[in-house]
Amino acid sequence: MFNVLLIGNGAREHAIAEAVVQSGHKPKLFSFMKANNPGIASLSQKIHIGSYSDLAAVKAYAKECRIDFAIIGPEDPLNNGVVDALKEIGVPAVGPTKNLARLETSKSFTRDLVRKYNIPGNPKFRIFTSMEGIKEFLDELDGIVVKPDGLTGGKGVMVQGDHFQTKEEALAYCKQVLTEHPSVIIDERLEGEEFSLQCLCDGKTVVVTPPVQDHKRRFVDDKGPNTGGMGSYSCEDHALPFMTQREVTEGLAITQKVAEAIYKETGEYYKGVMYGGFIITKSGVKLLEYNARFGDPEAMNTLPLLKTDFVDVCKAIIDGTLDTLNMEFEKKATVCKYAVPKGYGLPKDHPDAQSTSARVEIGNVGEARLYYASVDKREDGLYMSTSRAIGVVGIADTLSEAERIAENAMSAIKGPIDHRPDIGTEPLINRRILHMQQIGR
Ligand code: GLY
Questions:
Q1: Does residue 74 line the site of ligand 1, with CB under 6 A?
Q2: Whose Cα sits closest to atom 3 in ligand 1?
Q3: Does any domain span residue 112?
Q4: 215 and 319 both lie in a single domain
């Protein structure tokens, strides 16, 4: 019998909680959340509401609940050193230490690591701690991406053509970034289709999970501002319609080399999720960034397909025995869509921006899985906050069937919500395929 501590309160953590409690080991789940997620609470023996920066409270809760191991959902507690804090009291974790979480928290660390160990995948890039030399470097690039060196909730990356047009605007953004962050990373803009590859790592062995495509833009047809992710899909053949198995293997090979490099560089084994954001370009698979955790929404595509006992997976990560585990995923397609408040991601002066903190009612979602994100269960019902509210996931033999299941579920959620009906649909998938054909790879 295991006592498992889960840290986090989103839909990703709801999916993790579900995978934990479905284990044949019959573990007891204890959850440390910054806000009460009713889905996670219903699966937990006990919950604690607290701040992810209050490491003393996390340790006290872990001791009180006699925790055997912890799973860290979001990046903030990793950045705060929660894994190191738990280690001090003998509690191992699925999640890297603060030092190794730099894979996500410091984009300069990762770019430098990949360069130093001659790992393929870096675009042309430079890291700047002052404005000196930035203008000259921008002149060398056909397209520009500006990234702050630090956590930005997925919303700090600015891409030329999408978020700004001119070099002058890029320079102004770099200047702004340098007032808030130690450095700014400038990448050449790459043309292609993006995919998320969540790999599990025990420090030595890296195991791939089915690739997923996320949709960051707020509105249909990839219009509007970037969000945390409006939904995602994966396919029954464990590739994506615009990619080959060789490209999945390329992403995995980069991640294996990065795991090896992390050990050589730090002497520490990386234990947790290495989620690579990759892009398929004319000249192969390139690395956009790593995250040190499961993706949100991607975890909702991946974990429900896991056939292997999730507690065994966690134990193998912690014990360094992933090489002995036969990890299997169902050969099914998945489509995840997020129900968000109408005002989500909109500027404050937009007419819809005030429709937050509204009540939602959930009817019959049929065969779909439902994962709570930012919702508050009050006496008179379920209320949304300003963030993504509820994830619904269709799972089926084909993408179109999975999409239909997710859409049906969405229509059972009543309230001032919005979602992206195009995610997982044929026209959008065909556009992705055409895009890759036009690139000529
Ligand atoms: N899907 C984006 C993220 O988890 O950061």
A1: no
A2: 295
A3: no
A4: yes
- Please tell me the predicted confidence (pLDDT) of residue 74: 98
What's this model's pTM, rounded to 2 decimal places? 0.96
The strand pairing partners of 275, in sequence order, are 198, 291
Residue at a domain's end among 292, 324, 356? 324
Residues 73-78: what's their mean pLDDT?
98
Encode 160-197: b = buried (16+ Cβ within 10 Å), e = exposed: beeebeeeeebbebbeebbeebebbbbbbbbebbbbbb
Is 214 touching ligand 1 by the criterion CB < 6 Å? yes
Residue 155: inside a domain, yes or no? Answer: yes
Condensed to tens digits (0 to 9), the pLDDT of residues 164-207 reads 999 999 999 999 999 999 999 999 999 999 999 999 999 999 99
Check if 374 has its Cβ closer than 6 Å to any atom of ligand 1: no
The single residue listed with the structure tokens 């489509």 is 335
Q: Are residues 228 and 312 in the same domain?
A: yes
Helices (H), 167-244: 167-180
Paired sense of beta strands 28-33 and 46-49, if any:
parallel
Q: Is the CB of 154 under 6 A from ligand 1?
A: yes
H or E element in which residue 270 lies = none
Domain identity same for 246 and 155: no
Q: Which of 12, 155, 194, 298 to mutate to test the pocket of ligand 1 (most atoms within 8 A of CB)?
A: 298
**Which residues contact residue 256 at a Cβ distance below 8 angstroms, ignoring those fewer than 6 apart?**
206
What contacts 343, CB < 8 A, 6 or more positions away?
350, 352, 353, 354, 355, 356, 386
CA of 175 to the centre of ligand 1 (A): 26
Q: With a 6 A CB cut-off, is 295 part of the ligand 1 pocket?
A: yes
CATH code of 417's domain = 3.90.600.10
- For residue 289, the domain's CATH number is 3.30.470.20
Question: Are residues 173 and 201 both part of a single domain?
Answer: no
* Same domain assignment for residues 342 and 310: no
Look-up of token digits 């000529």: 440
Domain count, the chain: 4
Tell me which residue range forms the domain holding 358: 333-432
CA contacts within 13 A on the Cβ side of 280 = 28
- Span from the CA of 218 to the centroid of ligand 1 (angstroms): 14
- pLDDT score of 260 more than 60: yes
C-beta of 291 in contact with ligand 1 (< 6 A): yes
Given a cut of 90, whether residue 351 has pLDDT beyond it is: no
